[in-house]
Amino acid sequence: DDVDRFTAIHIGTGVPAGEVVCGSDSFLATTKLDVHFTGVGAHAGGRPEEGRNALLAAAQATLALHGLAQHSGGVARVNVGVLQAGTGRNVVADCALLKVETRGITNQVNDDIYQQALRVIAGAAAMYGVEQQVTLMGAARSCTPTQPWVDFIHQQADALGIFDSVVDRKAQAAGSEDATYMMERVRQRGGQASYVIFGCDLAAGHHNARFDFDEQVMPDAITLLATLALNQAQYGETR
């Protein structure tokens, strides 16, 4: 609440080594949810009609959820990252778990996709006569950096002379960031906020099993952050 100037950072995200993006606004709003389906177990050979199959409800929901990612408002995403179900090959599954996320280019797009996802989940449960419970596990919002602070970061990065390229904005593939909650709050309270991306060489993409990064990005990033902290008193004078 009492922060005047806020800067979050990330490395990689498709930005080439030697480049710094002073105000990334590519992060998507997102909602994370766990879905528990509860059915009735039964012997799959002897009394299958007595069961209510939570696994099939989860599988139906998974396929339907992955068909949702369209929105006239812009980029949208849905992903089911985990499906766990059942207890044995000869048992009608009485339980299933989905770990799901929705994303959107704006808060409204994400909220719309999330509400559609809830309807899909409820519909899949109804199809197979099982109960469903949705638990919210996390979320993040989209947020636009404040241009005056982006301009100041750009000025300080240029003055250092250690970056090959300094840009204000750049369209790049990005995930989501809970730092956007803090950015929004700082802005609401009259402060300045931005999200800086430091480009670097990656052995493989983010969340790939072979992911690794060139550590040379670290001293350059620390140098810029220290410079912002040491020179932030100049901010009001340069606006």
List keywords for this structure.
single chain, alpha+beta, 6 helices, four-stranded antiparallel beta sheet, four-stranded mixed beta sheet, 239 residues, 10 strands
Description:
With 239 residues, the protein is α+β, with helices and mostly antiparallel strands. It is 32% helix and 27% strand. The strands form three sheets. Strands 1-10-2-9 form a four-stranded mixed beta sheet. Strands 5-7-3-8 form a four-stranded antiparallel beta sheet. Helix 1 (54-65) runs antiparallel to helix 2 and helix 3 crosses helix 5.
Quick description:
Helix content is 32%, strand content 27%. By secondary structure, the protein is α+β, with helices and mostly antiparallel strands.
Strand order of the largest sheet: 1-10-2-9
Largest sheet: 4 strands, mixed
Low-confidence stretches: none
Determine the mean pLDDT: 91
Number of helices, counting only DSSP H or I runs of 4 residues or more: 6
Order of helices and strands: EEEEHEEEHEHEHEHH
Instruction: Give a count of the beta strands, DSSP E runs of length 2 or more.
Output: 10
Radius of gyration: 23 Å
Q: Tell me the helix content.
A: 25-40%
Strand content: 25-35%
3D shape: elongated
Global structural class: alpha+beta
Give the N-terminus to C-terminus distance in angstroms: 23 Å
List the helices and strands and how they pair.
Blueprint: E1 5-11, E2 19-21, E3 29-38, E4 42-43, H1 54-65, E5 76-85, E6 91-92, E7 95-104, H2 107-127, E8 131-140, H3 147-160, E9 165-167, H4 179-188, E10 192-198, H5 217-231, H6 235-238
Parallel strand pairs: 1-10, 2-9
Antiparallel strand pairs: 2-10, 3-7, 3-8, 4-6, 5-7
